[in-house]
């Protein structure tokens, strides 16, 4: 009798948590059916205010789930099995419920902004994620109560919840930034694995991209208005995302408007909703584009109003529409379509060249990272430029170790060799670093002999010679560097007379001498 009583008491807690968890799961599943379709006019402002905390809160369950996954992975290789992930899993479950409820409120608050199939799928994915992670919590309660039995089932549910989280997060990113946000720059092997179209990489003949049109032959809508709307409006008003139930990437739908009524009133820009929104004060909640988005320039607003006042024709050419001097001035401020096409093609070609250059040095960077694991990196994910810092090595880094970086020096854009044992002999190796923009040699033993090498680096923008033996004569050798903007000479052999002589030759360079 006495043995069974503690046993019943020990199971009371798991049963209570199980019943409560199942009640929450059933409530979440029933929520969309109970609420019905979103009201046409959305919810009151208080609901909108609360709903906008959804993007803030949703990071908490994601982070907590990742923490639980890391802790469980650690338990696999640890002899100590006494610790439990129940507490972080509880917070992951609770915060997932809060995130779902806030997301639900946001979805129902502004159906015109989020009432799309993608938004509905994101909401359902969030509910499913919350239900599965609560289920994992319930299973974990019983695993701990039974001293480890069923642990693999629990871990399987954790894995399932992380997969569902990934899909729901992808839909959320697509809802905010467009459906191809995560996959737009995916390399072809990844695109192939995901069943996406393979990107064709081919040379572009810039001159063949667009036939040059005389200004008077340009179609007002397609050649002038569409590029403006494409840059400033399409991100929130397209086939996938229709804020205010309004699409602007199609002429008929642009004219038709959204839940606020007609988008364009032919011949009446002052009554056209898009112009009314553009001309509202920037701090007005109804101003478009919204806060955080790039606003239309004044000359772009002039052109949109001109087009509408002239009838908002889809086919009329500039020569067919009367233009005032203000309109002509506004047109002159636009980048011509053929020039824009050339700029885009040049940018694409530069990106391809940068990617190819990165590939040529990528293998050497990976190999040298074994020797310099925390010191050698690419400047960014898309750049071919390489950066290096010896801050963790200091006196252990000298000319011999610098020589090891020889294969990647031509791609080097920034180096910090401060307080190392680099000498004039080592600096000679930097002659091949022709892309170098930032170099720190502070508190080294370099002299004017090193400056002779550095004076031949055409892209050098910032040079730190603090605490070195460089003199007035040395820095004068740097005066021919066209891009040098900052020179640090504090506690070196450079004095005020040397700085004055240098500034006379290169007035655009800031010399920092610690005074």
Question: What this model shows, in words?
Answer:
The chain is mainly α. It has three domains: about 10-175; about 210-335, no CATH class; about 370-510, Ribonuclease Inhibitor (Leucine-rich repeat, LRR (right-handed beta-alpha superhelix)). About 50% of the residues lie in helices and about 5% in strands. It contains 20 helices and seven strands. It has helices at about 5-35, 45-50, 55, 60-75, 85-110, 110-115, 115-145, 150-175, 190-195, 220-230, 250-255, 275-280, 300-310, 325-335, 335-370, 400-405, 425, 450-455, 470-475, 495-505; strands spanning about 375-380, 385-390, 410-415, 440, 460-465, 485-490, 510. β5, α19 (about 470-475) and β6 form a beta-alpha-beta unit. α2 (about 45-50) packs antiparallel against α5 and α4 packs antiparallel against α5.
What shape does the CA trace take?
A: flat
The count of helical stretches stands at 20
Q: Major sheet: size, sense and barrel closure? A: 7 strands, mixed
Number of individual domains: 3
- Radius of gyration from the CA trace? 32 Å
Distance between the termini: 86 Å
User: Helix/strand/pairing class, anyone?
Assistant: mainly alpha
Order of secondary-structure elements: HHHHHHHHHHHHHHHEEHEHEHEHEHE
**Strand portion:** under 5%
Average pLDDT over all residues: 84
Low-confidence stretches: 201-211
- What is the percent of helical residues? 40-55%
Q: Report the count of strand segments.
A: 7
């Amino acid at each position: 009798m006495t043995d069974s009583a503690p046993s019943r008491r020990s199971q009371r807690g798991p049963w209570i948590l199980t019943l409560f968890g199942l009640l929450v799961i059933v409530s979440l599943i029933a929520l969309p059916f109970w609420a019905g379709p979103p009201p046409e006019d959305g919810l009151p402002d208080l609901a909108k205010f609360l709903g906008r905390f959804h993007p803030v809160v949703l990071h908490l369950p994601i982070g907590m789930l990742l923490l639980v996954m890391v802790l469980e992975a650690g338990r696999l290789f640890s002899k100590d099995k006494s610790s439990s992930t129940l507490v972080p899993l509880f917070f992951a479950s609770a915060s997932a419920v809060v995130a779902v409820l806030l997301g639900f409120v946001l979805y129902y608050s502004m159906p015109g902004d989020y009432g799309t199939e993608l938004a509905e799928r994101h909401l359902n994915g969030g509910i499913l994620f919350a239900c599965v992670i609560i289920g994992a919590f319930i299973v974990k309660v019983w695993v701990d109560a039974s001293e480890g039995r069923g642990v693999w089932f629990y871990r399987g549910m954790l894995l399932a919840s992380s997969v569902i989280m990934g899909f729901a997060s992808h839909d959320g990113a697509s809802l905010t930034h467009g459906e191809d946000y995560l996959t737009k720059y995916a390399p072809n092997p990844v695109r192939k694995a995901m069943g996406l179209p393979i990107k064709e990489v081919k040379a572009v003949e810039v001159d063949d991209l667009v036939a040059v049109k005389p200004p008077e032959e340009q179609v007002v809508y397609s050649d002038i208005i569409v590029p403006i709307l494409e840059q400033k409006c399409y991100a929130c008003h397209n086939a996938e995302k229709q804020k205010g139930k309004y699409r602007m990437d199609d002429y008929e739908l642009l004219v038709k408007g959204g839940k606020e009524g007609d988008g364009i009133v032919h011949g009446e820009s002052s009554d056209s909703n898009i112009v009314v929104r553009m001309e509202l004060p920037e701090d007005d909640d109804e101003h478009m584009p919204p806060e955080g988005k790039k606003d239309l320039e004044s000359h772009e607003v002039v052109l949109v109003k001109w087009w509408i006042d002239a009838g908002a024709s889809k086919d009329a050419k500039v020569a067919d529409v009367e233009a005032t001097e203000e309109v002509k001035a506004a047109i002159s401020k636009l980048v011509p379509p053929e020039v824009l096409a050339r700029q885009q093609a040049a940018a694409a070609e530069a990106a391809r060249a940068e990617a190819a250059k990165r590939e040529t040095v990528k293998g050497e960077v990976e190999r040298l990272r074994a020797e310099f694991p925390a010191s050698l990196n690419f400047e960014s994910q898309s750049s071919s430029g390489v950066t290096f810092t010896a801050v963790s090595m200091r006196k252990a880094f000298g000319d011999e170790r610098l020589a090891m970086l020889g294969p990647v020096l031509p791609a080097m854009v920034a180096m910090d060799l401060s307080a190392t044992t680099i000498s004039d002999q080592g600096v000679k190796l930097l002659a091949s670093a022709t892309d170098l923009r930032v170099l720190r040699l502070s508190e080294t033993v370099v002299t004017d002999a090193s400056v002779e090498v550095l004076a031949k680096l055409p892209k050098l923008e910032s040079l730190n010679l603090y605490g070195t033996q460089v003199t007035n004569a040395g820095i004068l050798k740097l005066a021919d560097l066209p891009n040098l903007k900052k020179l640090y000479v504090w506690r070196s052999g450079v004095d005020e007379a040397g700085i004055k002589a240098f500034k006379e030759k290169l007035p655009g360079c800031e010399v920092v001498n610690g005074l």
